[in-house]
Amino acid sequence: MTITRRPETPADEPFLRQMIIASLTQELMAWMWPEAIRDQLLLMQYNAKIGSLRSNYPAAISEIILTDGEPAGWIFLDESREHIHLCEIVVLIELRGKGVGSAVLRELLEAADRAGKPVRLLVNVTNTGAVRLYERLGFGRTGGNEVQHEMERRPG
Q1: Which of 11, 79, 102, 139 is the most buried (most CB within 10 A)?
Q2: What pLDDT shows up at residue 71?
Q3: 108-129 burial string, b = 16+ CB within 10 Å, else e?
């Protein structure tokens, strides 16, 4: 499997919406919500997530992750002089656990090491799979609360 990235384009919006809503459905256990309002609430969650990221990080890099040339995920990064902030990474549910996210993150960490910058992120405390992945890649908890862990991986 060949994993690459390319800049996000407006044509990627349907893919992003479908993938992120599927991820939110899983994360929020939305299959338990009343069917009459589920789609509308999930679309609101999607719009809030995308809108918040784009307004809080206007200079961020938004890329589509590809496996063998097909869209497989999304990464949204904000780089400053001091650090790289991994704002969001989402991989299609059916490709999780197959090394896609790990490969993209390793590439990001190699670039951060070359630049001498730490990589920082926030992760939901209930997303135990992601927390374990980040810890395996050298991230440590630097703060947070009962909802989110703040994590950082120093260059090296």
Answers
A1: 139
A2: 98
A3: bbeebeeeebbbbbebeeeeee
Give the Cα-Cα-Cα angle 99, 103, 108 (nearest 5 degrees).
150
Contacts by 16-20 with C-beta closer than 8 Å and gap 24+? 16/50, 16/74, 17/43, 17/46, 19/71, 19/73, 19/74, 19/90, 19/92, 20/46, 20/49, 20/50, 20/74, 20/90
Residues 6+ apart with CB under 8 A from 153: 109, 112, 118, 119, 134, 137, 138, 139, 140
pTM (predicted TM-score): 0.90
Under 8 Å between Cβ of 27 and 128: no
pLDDT digit string (tens) for 42-80? 899 999 999 999 999 999 999 999 999 999 999 999 999
pLDDT digits (tens, 9 = 90+) for 92-105: 999 998 999 999 99
Parallel, antiparallel, or unpaired: how do β-strands 3-7 and 148-153 relate?
unpaired
Paired strand residues for 5: 65
Supply the DSSP symbol for 60: -
**pLDDT reported for residue 28:** 79
Residues 6+ apart with CB under 8 A from 86: 75, 77, 105, 108, 119, 120, 121
